[in-house]
Amino acid sequence: MASTAASRLGLAWIRVRDSLWFIPGLSVVAGSALAIVAVRIPSPTFDGTTAGFWIFGGGSEGARGVLTAIAGGLITVTGTIFSVTIIALQLASSQFTPRLLRSFVADRVNQSVLGIFIGTFTYTLLVLRTVRSEADDRVSFVPHVGVTLALALLLVSIGGLIVFINHAAQSIRASVILHRESRRILEVVDDLFPSHIGRPSAHGGAQPPIPSDGHAWPADAPALVGAERSGYLQSVHADALWELGKSDAAPRSGVISIRMELHIGEFAFPGKPIAAIWPAGALDDRVERAVRDAFVLGPDRTPEQDLEYGLVELSDIAVKALSPGINDPTTAAQAIDRLVEVLAALASRVPPDSVRSSPDGGVRLLARHTQFDRAAGLAFDQIRHFGADNPGIATVLLERMLDLASVVPAHLLPVVGEQVDAITRAARRAIVDSGDLRRLEPLAARALQATITPPPAAPPSAAPSILAAPAPPPPAGRRRP
């Protein structure tokens, strides 16, 4: 399955790209290559020209002193940068959520600054080893161009240090973290909704389709494919499944129906069903192996295709802020704002057809997409549970539900109404002060009223016309003038 192998390589590339060693490793290679080239450039003639003014003109001892000072200072500052990065990771993990560690490690500014320092250090050491003096019983050699480039790279490193200090201070701010994570989640929404996996299945013909509710199957029971190892479902490669329709295991009708038993991001242990196959007779060793290869399990959840991971991440930040050890309701309110932003974007998208077919119609896949009601539950259930006794958080939740009800389509209003009802009931149980409850009641009533689908308006032609209405009769006892 070439497509499956390519997709797995793509996931591996994402892990490598977002690691803390990849860009610094490339910088080491680039620094080594630059050093090899720089020491081979002939030294210019120092005749007072502009080029001679900018090129390092000292002797071997001066070159050694400069390169030694640069290398020693850079390795010290590099250690400091690593220490600051680790402190930022610990702070983000304890104050916000451990799921932010991936974002901090994958931060391009942190990786680039580390790469600049480590690459410059590598370059300086390699140039330093080429400096020779007459006292060494060899021909004196000073790579003037190489030393000049080392000084230029030092200036670049100083600029990188200034950028890193500012970026490190900004990156641990709650508003910056929430903005960055919400932007990433919105990118996932853009990528996944609508999803172009196969084509919409044309339900028809003698072959019964996979049911749209995802629960009831045709008369014949399906065959289940279990996971071989534990892990989180990171992605499903439909291109590999489409090949099954061309296999010898395909039924006479030429259609194999496959249903996902897990959502993207859910955990599977060995033996847990990850897919169901219908008809059951189509399942053989080849089909089972192809299905297991198409369902990629990994040690952790990946945010690239997992929308629910981002929702849980923002919800965790709010819950962490509401914990007794932190007590930061402002951050919780900001996280709620970002969650509503994501849900509003999700509600504006046309959900993809759950039943997809291969181009030749030989395979039907019933995918499990994140529906709006499931996303709303992941976003607000935990916040409602841990913040129900806080009148401020209950007020923010109801206000945001009121905002959300004003932008979602009419068919999604009942989902928002369920959240409003749950928030109101939780606040009534948890808030002790009766005054706080009285202040919440009008807001809860307005939010609930906003989620009630209004009746369809009468067409304009059916509305009575004021101009066509007959004049009212004059009052009794008075004559018309």
Structural class: alpha+beta
Q: Percentage of helical residues?
A: 40-55%
Number of domains: 3
* Widest sheet, order of strands: 1-8-9-4-6-2
The gyration radius over C-alpha positions equals 33 Å
Overall strand count? 9
Poorly predicted runs: 195-217, 460-481
Strand content: 5-15%
Instruction: Average the pLDDT over all residues and give the rounded result.
Output: 81
Shape: flat
State the helix count: 16
* Largest β sheet strand count, sense and barrel closure: 6 strands, mixed
Q: Give the helices and strands as they follow along the chain.
A: HHHHHHHHEEEHEEEHEHHEEHHHH
End-to-end separation = 95 Å
Descriptive report:
This protein is of the alpha+beta class and 481 residues long. It folds into three domains: 2-172, no CATH class; 199-298, Aldehyde Oxidoreductase, domain 3 (Alpha-Beta Complex); 307-351 and 370-450. It is 54% helix and 7% strand. A six-stranded mixed beta sheet has the order 1-8-9-4-6-2. A three-stranded antiparallel beta sheet has the order 5-3-7. Helix 2 (22-38) runs parallel beside helix 6 (108-128). The N and C termini lie far apart (95 Å).
